[in-house]
Specification:
Elements (H helix, E strand, L loop, with lengths): L2 H26 L3 H21 L3 H25 L12 H25 L12 H9 L4 H22 L20 H17 L1
Length: 202
């Protein structure tokens, strides 16, 4: 074993231990905010493993998308709705925990046996960057699905903006359901105050 192979093996072991430790911390942490931060550690460990596989584009996407966007969004959602509830103890809780532990251990044993018994093909690492290969496929073989995904994300963004701008105003007498109003908030507040004054004078 050469020095480079030894460093790679040690790095793989450290990153794997970090990923497993952070994942266990996500499950076992008593505070859900700590679980959110530990989830970011799992994502960073996975990005390091991708770098060991010479998948630099996937590693960068892992950091930018999962750590920089998804994990931050999860933390914001946790902090906004972080309420403490008192849960009553479940009946036969020990039985449920035992069944869950048996299923998890069985799945872990199955994956371990499969990993050691599968003849994994060893291929030399290509010197070409994965970002160049993926970019070439995006703009040649998968151009149409890539553009369709862009249009779909744009439609989702527009829908989110429309839903965020939806304002509920009391309807006039005889009107139907509430309609989608695309007016500024001060104008809506002024109209609501005017309607309240008219109702009070009546």
């Amino acid at each position: 074993m050469t020095l480079a192979e030894g460093v790679q093996l040690v790095t793989f072991g450290v990153l794997s231990a970090m990923a497993i430790g952070f994942a266990l911390g996500v499950v076992w942490a008593p505070n859900i905010v700590y679980s959110g931060f530990l989830l970011g550690g799992v994502f960073l460990s996975m990005a390091g493993l991708y770098l060991l596989l010479n998948a630099d584009f996937v590693a960068a996407a892992q950091v930018l998308i999962y750590v920089g966007a998804v994990n931050v969004l999860i933390l914001f959602a946790i902090m906004l709705v972080n309420r403490r509830y008192t849960f009553a103890p479940l009946k036969l809780g020990w039985l449920r925990n035992g069944v869950t532990a048996v299923v998890c251990l069985g799945l872990f044993a199955l994956l371990t046996v499969m990993a050691f018994n599968t003849p994994w093909p060893l291929q030399p690492i290509q010197p070409l960057s994965s970002a160049m290969v993926i970019g070439g496929h995006f703009f040649s073989d998968y151009l149409l699905p890539f553009e369709l995904a862009s249009v779909l994300l744009l439609m989702a963004l527009i829908g989110a903006i429309v839903v965020a701008r939806r304002e509920s105003v009391a309807p006039e007498a005889g009107e139907g359901d509430l309609s989608l109003l695309e007016r500024a908030r001060p104008q809506l507040e002024a109209e609501s105050e005017r309607r309240a004054e008219l109702v009070s004078t009546r």
